[in-house]
Automatic annotation (TrEMBL):
Pfam families for the chain: ABC_tran (PF00005), Peptidase_S15 (PF02129), PepX_C (PF08530)
Protein's recorded name: ABC-2 type transport system ATP-binding protein
Ranges annotated as spanning the membrane: 20-38, 613-636
SMART domains, alphabetized: AAA, PepX_C
Keyword Kinase: no
Source organism of the structure: Micromonospora echinospora (Micromonospora purpurea)
Length: 958
């Protein structure tokens, strides 16, 4: 098994990448599925008991631990199984890891879970994983496992065992491995390296006594007096959200004849503080509580408190760990950030101990992360245990893996994370670096009195929430300075801890600052990755910024893709809700140093997931179908070309000829029964008809969107069939525009034209954009367009390439009157040089002013066609100007065959239907109505109504 050595950790140059074999990808997915969605898990039995163990500095102090032992079916003295010690997170109990214990037991491991001292129903006080207390408790549990006849042993008293735990449990796994060589492998997750540094961080490398107190997280832990809320329990596959119910059969016996621990009547372990204890301390040990109270009161760590916390830190004993270690850390973690796992990896590797590092997108602030990340962490854990504990799996290797959020799953709308791997762990410094300059003037920033109001950036349990604030409360006016870069010329995949140089001046000589790195999109949206900040405490500062010397700040490690065109924003703030700051008000001056922001990068290859594999299977199926369809279409096209290779001589110079078109659907509905017309060069032809008359169906057949039942369509003499090459000579807008919302108007036009495969020089973009009349808006994303803007862009798209036949369905829909008037002129100009236009519209006045010819369809049939003047001239309507229009209407309604047309803007328009006008006038005069003027009505609307009837309804488009 390759080991992680100091030399390899220090390498910063990129290394060669191995290609992942298909068998490895399949094994990865199979293992992930095997744990995440095991179809039929083997049976197991459980024993719950209170075990009395002896620990403490003397090794003789008794404490009762609430335990559950999971034993897989088939395990016996003759068929022993390896074991796993499964530890919970701070504030949890054995119940919070029950689901994971069941999963591991189902894989053939004996699993022992317990509630750590000071929590739930276990006795004792909380010592924060003290080697004399919690660690020694765990050693006694190893003794208990070794005595079980079903558990495999390496020697007398030495069980074959791995230790898995998250957060508090992860720290225990590291410390136990350092103090007890019986541990065969460990999987510590989202845990700490140095507890003082975790709660008193300082990002310029100063000691923990100079760190900035992380009061938010510390308050959650200590303020709850040992009863921390659920959720502080670990990453995927380790700690869930279940709470201790307090009623799990606490003194329930095991199997007959097996040891059961304490019996009824033993010590009470109610989870309450010991009698006489300080209420401020709860179930914490007195020295731990006193250290917290001192730090919380002063906002700074004294040496005694730092020394106490360091005794509970793996940092002091990493060189003693010989157990192969899989370190899993979350990038959404403001409690124990990535740097803690990095320090653990470096310390353990000194001895040549096998170490593997994996980062995932969750953590204390981000939970389990997406399902894809949970599957990856579960697979790595299973792989590690199977090889190093069970001895049944292949060597896991020492690849470094990480992930980043890739988007939403199209099926369940959940987040999806893409995992990556590289052969060597580069640390938080990355394999390579990208330098980006940030600029801005020196700026004064105020430290608020008492630290209030404070910025909201790093919120315990919800660090990423700050990204939603987008400056509303994230950075308060007057309390922060901004420095920005130019837009990035290319995307940068940041994997690691960026660094930035700052200068600061203070009238007091000291300053507490919070440095942040934002990703700023072109629209101004600023995102602070996972809400992570770098706290800084500086001393010995000059009073003026000119005298200030630059200091390098190491920002928290992140995994983020910063897209091309985005900018970096460095923010230096004076306050943060999660940290303690100086109470005295003052004003600092800050500036950036001469060095650029350094972004670490790592190149890696994607890791297949179950979703990826299924997508490839689905893609293969779709590809097969697509190939079959392509072959089918090619065959049909070849057949059509063989049949229609000739040009119909009668229509060779005619842009469009429709002959006896019929469209009948399977249910017998007839949308078009008999449509027959032509469109000639230079003509603008209006296709008219009431709703449901068959206009849209005719256009759909014309564009090859549906097949006719009977009839033929010819375009310049070529018989029209779906996929016919002659369709390239038609520009169309039918059934509304459709654009890619993330592209601008111009980008949509260019993308459409590229899809045609024709040279860009033939597109005539300038003419199309002039027609669209969108001005500067053509460079905006189309998801911000109004309906009218989208309609104008669609018309411009139809006119790209200046097609010889233009087919438009309701082109003026959404346009205002000036735009409609301009469209009228555009269409009239367009029908020149042999081009022609077919327009379907319900605006009869516009058709009358725009079109040279009209085709009137009613109930699927043509009722009139020809020049607009002829159709209007054939109208029998007459306009009467009379003294009393209302009485005139009543008189004329009584005349046989005469019909007064409705909705004529207050005028009296009459369809005489062959009745002599003189007779109509005489009837009005006899009724005492004065007739001032009688003129023929020459409007297309009147002719249309006369042709289709006032209440005519078509057969209905589909």
């Amino acid at each position: 098994m390759p080991t992680l050595t100091v030399a390899r950790l220090r390498r910063a140059l990129p290394t060669g990448r191995r290609l992942v074999a298909a068998s490895v990808a399949i094994a990865l997915v199979a293992a992930a599925v095997g744990w995440a969605v095991w179809p039929e898990r083997p049976a197991y039995t459980t024993e719950s008991a209170l075990l009395t163990v002896r620990s403490g500095p003397s090794g003789a102090e008794p404490v009762d631990l609430d335990t559950t032992f999971y034993l897989p079916e088939g395990a016996s003295a003759g068929s022993r199984v390896p074991a796993v010690l499964l530890a919970h997170g701070f504030g949890g109990t054995k119940e919070t890891v029950r689901a994971d214990a069941e999963e591991i037991a189902a894989r053939g491991y004996a699993v022992l879970t317990w509630t750590a001292r000071g929590f739930g129903r276990s006795g004792g006080q909380i010592h924060l994983n003290s080697p004399d207390h919690e660690v020694r408790d765990a050693q006694r549990l190893l003794d208990w496992l070794a005595a079980r006849p079903q558990v495999r042993t390496d020697a007398a008293g030495d069980p074959r065992v791995g230790v898995v735990g998250g957060s508090y449990g992860g720290g225990l796994a590291l410390l136990l491995a350092a103090h007890d060589r019986r541990v065969d492998a460990i999987v510590p997750m989202i845990t700490w390296n140095d507890l003082p540094r975790a709660f008193l961080p300082e990002s310029t490398g100063r000691p923990a006594t100079e760190g900035v107190f992380k009061k938010g997280w510390a308050g959650i832990f200590f303020g709850g007096a040992g009863a921390a809320p659920a959720g502080l329990t670990g990453p995927p596959g380790v700690d869930g959200d279940e709470e201790e119910s307090g009623n799990d059969g606490a003194r329930e016996g095991g199997q007959p004849g097996e040891p059961t621990g304490n019996t009824p009547g033993g010590p009470a372990v109610s989870g309450s503080p010991p009698a006489g204890a300080d209420p401020a301390c709860g179930r914490f040990a007195a020295d731990v509580c006193a250290a917290y109270l001192r730090i919380a009161a002063t906002g700074r760590g004294d040496q005694a408190a730092v020394d106490l916390l360091r005794r509970s830190s793996p940092a002091t004993v990493l060189d003693r760990i010989e157990s192969p270690t899989l370190l899993v850390q979350g990038t959404a973690d403001s409690l124990f950030p990535i740097a803690e796992a990095d320090a653990n990896a470096r310390g353990i590797a000194v001895n040549g101990t096998p170490v593997r590092v994996a980062w995932f997108t969750g953590g204390h602030d981000g939970g389990d992360g997406p399902e894809t990340d949970s599957d990856r962490v579960k697979f790595l854990t299973v792989q590690w245990l199977d090889h190093y504990v069970a001895g049944t799996g292949d060597a896991p290797g020492d690849d470094f893996t990480w992930s980043r959020i890739a988007g939403f799953d199209a099926l369940d709308r959940g987040l999806v994370a893409t995992g990556y791997r590289t052969t060597d762990y580069p640390g938080v410094g990355g394999d390579d670096r990208r330098e980006v300059a940030v600029t801005g003037p020196a700026q004064p920033i105020a430290n608020p009195p008492g630290g209030n109001p404070a910025a909201i950036s790093s919120l315990p349990l919800a660090g990423s929430f700050s990204s939603l604030l987008d400056g509303v409360a994230g950075d308060l006016p007057g309390q922060h300075a901004r420095f920005e870069s130019a837009p990035l010329g290319g995307a940068v995949d940041v994997v690691g801890a960026p660094t930035v140089s700052i200068r600061a001046a203070s009238p007091t000589g000291e300053a507490v600052l919070f440095v942040k790195l934002y990703d700023v999109a072109p629209d101004g949206t600023a995102t602070l990755p996972s809400g992570l900040v770098a706290p800084v405490r500086l001393s010995g500062l000059p009073a003026t910024i000119e005298q200030a010397r630059p200091v390098t700040v190491t920002l928290p490690a992140i995994v983020r893709r910063i897209e091309a065109g985005h900018r970096l924003r460095v923010v230096v703030a004076t306050s943060d809700q999660a940290y303690a700051t100086p109470a005295e008000p003052t004003v600092y001056t800050v500036a950036v140093g001469d060095a650029p922001v350094v972004l670490p990068t790592v190149s890696g290859e994607p890791i297949p997931t179950t979703a990826t594999v299924w997508r490839w299977v689905l893609a293969g199926l779709l590809a097969t179908i697509a190939v079959a369809l392509v072959v089918l279409v090619a065959v049909l096209r070849r057949r059509h070309r063989r049949q229609d290779s000739s040009v119909h001589p009668a229509y060779a110079g005619t842009p469009l000829a429709v002959r006896q078109l019929r469209k009948e659907y399977a249910d017998g509905f007839v949308a078009v029964s008999n449509v027959d017309f032509e469109v000639h060069p230079g003509q603008v032809v209006g296709l008219l008809g009431p709703n449901g008359a068959g206009k849209t169906t005719t256009l759909r057949v014309l564009m090859g969107l549906t097949q006719p039942t009977a009839g033929e369509i010819y375009v310049f003499g070529h018989r029209l069939v779906p996929g016919s090459p002659v369709l390239s000579r038609i520009g169309a807008l039918v059934e509304g525009p459709g654009f890619l919302p993330h592209l601008s108007g111009l980008e949509n036009l260019k993308a459409y034209w590229r899809a045609t495969g024709r040279p860009e020089s033939e597109a005539h973009f300038a003419e199309a954009l002039e027609i669209a009349g969108l001005g500067a808006s053509v460079h905006r994303r189309t998801n911000n367009y109004s309906h009218g803007m989208r309609q104008r862009l669609a018309i411009a798209q139809a006119m790209l390439g200046l097609p010889e036949l233009l087919v438009l369905d309701e082109p003026t829909d959404g346009l205002d009157p000036p735009q409609i008037a301009e469209m009228r002129r555009v269409l009239q100009r367009y029908a020149t040089d042999g081009r022609a236009v077919l327009v379907s519209s319900h605006l009869l006045a516009e058709v009358e002013q725009t079109c040279t010819h009209a085709v009137v369809v009613n109930k699927g049939r043509i009722v009139a066609s020809g020049p607009v003047e002829e159709i209007v001239g054939e109208s029998p309507s007459v306009l009467f100007e009379v003294s009393d229009p209302d009485t005139a209407r009543e008189v004329l309604d009584r005349l046989d065959g005469v019909r007064v047309l409705p909705d004529t803007e207050g005028q009296l328009v009459v369809d005489t239907n062959g009745t002599a006008r003189s007779e109509v006038v005489a009837e009005l005069v006899r009724a005492g109505i004065g007739v001032d003027r009688v003129v023929p009505r020459r409007r297309l609307e009147d002719a249309f109504l006369a042709l289709v009837g006032e209440n005519s309804r078509g057969s209905g488009d589909r």
